[in-house]
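Action item from last week, closing it out:
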Amino acid sequence: MSDSPTAADIRVLIVDDQQLMRAGFRIILESEPGIDVVGEAENGEQAVRQARALAPDVICMDVQMPGMDGLEATRLIVADPTLASSVLVLTTFNREDYLFSALQSGASGFLLKNASPEELVNAVQVLARGDALLSPDVTRHVIAAATARADVGDTGLDTLVPRYSTSEPPLIETVEIPHPAADAALATLTEREAEVLQFLAAGLSNAEIATRLYVGESTVKTHVSKVLMKLGLRDRIQAVIFAYEHGVTAAPRA
């Protein structure tokens, strides 16, 4: 366990309807110096109340819970101007129809519940710095889920505009829907920046993009920052959503 919390500690709220899961997350996080679990909640209503009362830096949010689910709780927390909490959504993928909605809920990070303790700690630290973390596995699963639903003519995702092919790896097919503002913003991207956006849409991490482009990760971070700035996006999660909604073709993963 860590020592007594200090002003520099990362304050974490754990939200999950399973007590054993909350206890496990607490043990993992509090074993890391500099992280302090300040509270727990077992549903969305409690999460919103605890967030307002405790003002945590990071909220580890389950999706499926009785009453208010994690997506609605995330939307309320992110929309609250008095809160600066970043939300890390933890999912087991047993509700695929929730995934794209989770991307749009305003969460700053997504992680599988079977991630390693080190990955959970890293995710909390990344979000506490004000950055976003989108697990490539999560992105790939979102694409696969949307692909399967589009193939039968029903995405189950009301805001998902593009149609998807069933090729492997999945590619996003451009749809002829006018997006003047988006087209103008896309036109400001350099050829390399447009390529980076395609890699983001495919769910590649900075390290994977660096390998594909034969450049350093610092260079990729610079390109990603410029893409976000030019498109007026908050983070790489919004970049994935933007790509899906505006028919940007995802680069093949191999």
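Closing note: The chain has eleven helices and six strands.
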